[in-house]
Amino acid sequence: MLDLRSDFPLLAARPELTFLDSGASAQKPHQVLSAMREFAENHYANVHRGAYRLSQEATLAYEGARETLARFVGATDPAEMVFTRGTTTSLNVLAAGLTPRLAGRSILITEMEHHANLIPWQLAARRAGATLAHVPLTDEFRLDMDAFDRLLTPDVAVVSVAGMSNVLGTINPVAEIAAKAHAVGAVVVVDGAQMVPHLPVDVAHLGIDALAFSAHKMLGPTGIGGLWGRRDLLEDIEPFETGGEMIRDVSFETATWAQIPQKFEAGTPPITEAVGFAAAAEYLTSLGMEAVAAHDATLTTLALERLSEEVPGISIQGPPAGPDRGGVISFTLDGIHPHDIATILDSHGVAVRAGHHCAKPLMSRLSVPATARASFSVYNTPADLDPLVVGLRSAIEIFG
Amino acid sequence: MSLTDLYREVILDHYRSPRNRGTLAAPDLHGEGTNPLCGDEIAIDMTLDDGVVSEVRVTGQGCSISQASASMMSEAITGRTVAEIREIAARFNALMTTDDQIVDPDRPGSVLGDLEALQGVREFPVRIKCATLSWHTMLDAFGQ
Question: Which of A31, A227, A399, B68 could cross-link with A90 by S-S, CB 3.0 to 4.6 Å?
């Protein structure tokens, strides 16, 4: 097991805190914080503009960050890595950019999607006159792949799916989905917000066309994320935002776009954040993503075991431990609302999320208004499960 | 922050056995409210007789604080005039937002009675909107 708590200044400063909400946003190691500070104090300027040396240093750092992030997800061409504000923006760029291809066609998502991978496609479908279908869940909280096969008709122009569910922890068979979707000519988009921080990701190996992810869920800063897309896809679609830095030529009548990735990076980008994003990728790479995934799996297996055995009346909304089970554990307790669970856990120093997790259609499918959710990152250890179990047992006592 | 101040027995009792639960066939007033961030939902039916709220029924789902507050509110406003209800609502709102020390709800002369048990919510700022949801919903039904 990894033991990294001392790398994380916030966790070191608050020894009483058991932080189990990394699925919402992860804490930052000092390696990330100091990389950002070092850059801001010594190399900061706007990028791609100044003829002066400082701006060149900033540009080198920014473009170096792009190369690091491209490599982190297995891409060979850094131009295919676009910096955005985060997963939500990346998915909006794709949905808006793909809209012209959708007239009379169909978009296929899944029942477990976060609103960020649902609403942009609803809007795209409405604008293009397309239909939006979703793959249902099985009773084991996995995608119903027989239904997927049936829904995957030649009408489907886009398949967009979460790599890992932010509610259920289900890790979806992305490579299989991509291969099947490509057989009908569909573009394959993956919402990697939860997958990229926890699993080794290689876009070429997965065979997908685009990947959206966020820095702040993978130990990096807020305000920046990644959109990796295959070169031909990114070159074909129109930009989502326009303005400075994304043009080749502009007159009062018209404008032409810069090459990728600049075409998608209108305005001054989050430069210091890009440096922090790369530092987070380097930190995870130094741990080894295989080791990160193994840590996550061990902790998840142990947590599922302990919660089932030591917390009477718990219902866990997610698949059992196994290779397709990630470290996001949603649960409910008989007769106790998730907000009350979260408040009581907080009084035990345990931070969890309670609510619909931006997945209201999934909550309806699960027939619950909300769940409580414990989610793990590299700094969590089996010892974090003790206050979780104690807090849940105290909730049962209070409401008993 | 004390959990025993938040989860007083009277609150848990209203949560487990909510009063005036249900709907009215022909309400004079109807209000619906939600907290979109947390999903708490409340719907309120009321009948008016000569300016007095004669019957109140509540449905909804959500945390113990939102549902107990709705139940306590339904008791507090039954048999009251609209003017009295606005007065109680203002006092309750003040109770939720003051910086005063928590007082004993069982003390003699307590104006809000059981409702004062909800004052512990003040110590948990993210939960105040749970306690006030049903009150806003009720006032909305009167057209504020």
Answer: A227
Q: Do A355 and B3 touch (CB under 8 A)?
A: no
Nearest to residue A229, comparing CAs of A204, A210, A206? A210
Residue A300 · residue A376 · CB < 8 Å: yes
Q: What DSSP string describes A30-61?
A: HHHHHHHHHHHHHT---SS--SSHHHHHHHHH
Length of chain A: 400
A337-369 core/surface letters (b: 16 or more CB in 10 A; e: else): bbbbbbbbbbebebebbbbbbbbbbbbebbebb
Give the global pTM.
0.94
When CB atoms are compared, the residue of A339, A340, A347 closest to B1 is A347
Catalytic residue at A260? Answer: no
* pLDDT cut 90: percent of chain A above it: 95
* β A255-257/A247-250 pair status: antiparallel
User: Looking at A107-121, A203-217, B34-48, B106-120, which range is the least confident one?
Assistant: B106-120
- Say what the alpha-carbon torsion angle B137, A363, A163, A333 is, to the nearest 10 degrees: 110
Cβ-contact B69, B88 below 8 angstroms: no
The two structure tokens encoding residue A240: 């989502």
Q: Check A161, A284, A358, A359 and give the catalytic one.
A: A358
- CA separation for the pair A268, A266 (Å, rounded): 7
Joined tokens for residue B128: 């105040």
d(CA A197, CA A289): 9
Instruction: Determine which helix (DSSP H) or strand (DSSP E) holds A342, and give its type and residue range.
Output: helix A338-347
Residue B105: pLDDT band with limits 50, 70, 90: low
Quick one: how many helices (H) and strands (E) in chain B?
A: 5, 3
pLDDT tens-digit readout, A7-18: 999 999 999 999
C-alpha pair distances (Å), B135 with each of B31, B44, B69, B74: 10, 10, 8, 10
What is the CB-side half-sphere exposure of residue B136 using CA atoms within 13 A?
Answer: 14
Q: What is the pLDDT of residue A53?
A: 95
Give me the residue from B3, B61, B63 closest to A398, CB to CB: B3
SS3 state at A63: helix
Q: Do A340 and B64 touch (CB under 8 A)?
A: yes
Measured in angstroms, the CA of B38 and the nearest CA of chain A are apart by 5
For the segment A159-199, what is each residue's pLDDT rounded down to a tens digit?
Answer: 999 999 999 999 999 999 999 999 999 999 999 999 999 99
For residues B133 and B131, what is the distance between their CA atoms, to the nearest angstrom?
Answer: 6
Q: Spell out the residues 6+ positions from residue B110 whose beta carbon is closer than 8 angstroms to its own.
A: B103, B116
Q: Can you tell me whether residue A329 is helix, strand or coil?
A: strand
